[in-house]
Description:
The structure holds two protein chains of two kinds. In chain A, 36% of the residues lie in helices and 24% in strands. Chain A has helices spanning 2-6, 58-65, 93-99, 121-132, 137-150, 156-159, 169-181, 199-216, 227-233, 251-256, 261-268, 308-312, 331-347; strands at residues 14-27, 30-43, 47-51, 74-83, 86-87, 104-107, 187-191, 219-224, 236-241, 244-250, 317-321, 324-327. The radius of gyration of chain A is 21 Å and the shape is globular. Chain B is mainly α. Chain B has 13 helices and no strands. In chain B, helix 4 crosses helix 11 and helix 11 (258-282) packs parallel to helix 12 (293-302). The longest helix of chain B has 37 residues, at 127-163. Chain B is elongated and about 80 Å long. The A-B interface holds A 66, 68, 72, 97-102, 105-106, 108-110, 113-119, 127-128, 131-132, 153-154, 163, 165-166, 168, 171, 176, 179-180 and B 37-38, 40, 43, 45-46, 165, 232-234, 236-244, 251-252, 255-256, 258.
Amino acid sequence: MLSTRRCELNMSNTLLSVKNLKTYFETDDGTVKAVDGVSFELEKGETLGIVGESGSGKSVTNLSIIRLVPDPPGKIVGGEIQFTGQNLLQLSEEEVRKIRGRRISMIFQDPMTSLNPFMKISRQLMEMTQLHLGHTRAQAYEHAVKMLETVGIPDARSRVDDYPHEFSGGMRQRVMIAMALSCEPELLIADEPTTALDVTIQAQILELIRKLKQKTGTSVILITHDLGVVAGMTDHVVVMYAGKVFEQARTAELFAVPGNPYTKGLLRSVPDPTSEQGKLYQIPGLPPDVAHLKPGCPFAPRCERATSICREEFPPFVEVSKDHYSLCHFGDDVYRESQAEAARKATA
Amino acid sequence: MKEDPPEIRNTTNGESDLIHTPPEFAVAEGDIHVLPEDEFVAGTSLWKDAWRRLLKNKLAVFGLIVVTLTAIISLIGPPLIKSATGYTYDYIPSDVMLIKSIPPFKSAAGSFSWSHPMGTDNSGRDLLARVLLGGRISLMVGIISTFVSLIIGVSYGAIAGYLGGRIDNWMMRIVDVLYSLPYVILVIVLLAVFRSSTAVGQLILLFVALGSVSWLTMARIVRGQVLSLKNQEFVLAARATGVSTGRIIFRHVVPNTLGPVIVYATLTIPQVMLTEAFLSFLGFGVQPPLASWGSLAAEGIQNIGIFPWQLIFPGVTMALTLFSLNFLGDGLRDALDPQMRT
């Protein structure tokens, strides 16, 4: 549905376009529709944020992009992932492997476990460039030192032959970033890159990602559940819930005038130290069990404005304003309310 | 650290105590070592750590010393004996008088002599030279067969564990079937069917036969390790950087199984040596004039009443070595136990 509306866009500037992606997991408890009809696009040099609660399908979406969904039980059952004109879902394993790390790389959540404890940092960094860029050992070694310097590891030349346990969490995440960027990929997927780090290090790592992105022109997909991170880092935001895209807009617009009750709930539950008093808002209820979804809107049981139609009919994906989509029966109404609220805030 | 509510705060915990310390009891500034963010106390590596723990274990150190000494003496002993007394393991004196076995430290005439510290066997061959040769062969059988089982077992287990699913299922059912065969009989059948005409050929056959039945447990151990390792994030990270499956298995996953593999391998060596001794005792293993501790014991037991040294020397040497290897293996297990790692 999204693709038809966006087809007039200049295709040459689109780096990645995910269309109606469906990734299901076959479990004893039934089919878990972890990702169900997700579509979005990413332009060259842009940063896209994917936000959602735990289990909303953020990570599975991105594992699907580089075809690393654990199979079995997971399977990509439908959709299209166009990456610079190639459908990644139709490539052979061999061809996908040439793209992984070379053109699309990934940073994972926990830097403590995502480096091999038995391999020197240098070996892990060299493996990438020897594999993808055909570097000799000497070239790869120099490149590894250079990459460590780029990500701000002091005294890189003497640290490069250390083992991961000799690095702190923040430094390991820097090493992961160095590894991910060492082949200058076109797309960097950062799956909650700062969740396992403490707050000061979080800020440093995000700053580093932003700086390197500007320098290399890499596009970034940033998966997070931290709305503050999204606000500061991204150009576009996709809000996911129960494996579906609930809202999609430019970042500034989404934060100013959300067009979906779920997004509004998320934004309300961010503490605002300047004005908020008393109890922090919290969306009532729990995320649904995606193995047993009822026919209506998946958010209906937790939604303040849900009516009978929400419980019976799956909501439409409406364009509430230009480039701003919302999966809601009352998307336009919510959008207008948000506009009114924003206007009130501006005058106050 | 998890913050407990103040009323149930553990008062023995130094960190929590510090919060309640009145200012006058505050720790003097010089006592606190502030580490700069990017500098660390020189970390001890995993292996250094394990080595240190091993050295603390007296039995393991004893085992290590005995095994090393046995290996060195068996290696350099025979040429030394040859230059000192002229005897080798297969030298049979032409003297007809020497048909009977000579006791330790005695000459053929019965007076004290250094020429045979362990006596001789029935044919008059120097027993010390034969025990040392037996040591060479027994250790070689132990090490080479364990090496064979290591190569087969680790690759097999790692591939089965990493690939998982149906392949894993089939591969491990094959292991189960082989497990259920009585392996000593299997080795005897292998040795009997392919019986080689030369002593060296028989020895090689022994390596292959022992190695090919002792990899099963290794495969299971490695598979178990790999099953838990393959879901770790560094494997996913390696896949996400486009590393091929074979490379992930052998470069990323297998090195992480090294601890348990080393422990099991050190415990396999004495086990294989014992099996070899048993086979040689039955006459299936090493053939004369070559000797292993098992075949020497088999010869010795025939004359246990009259020439006890023929059994005692190879028997004690073998027991001591096997003991030591087992102590060493146990020590290594304690030293490399992941639960004890800090």
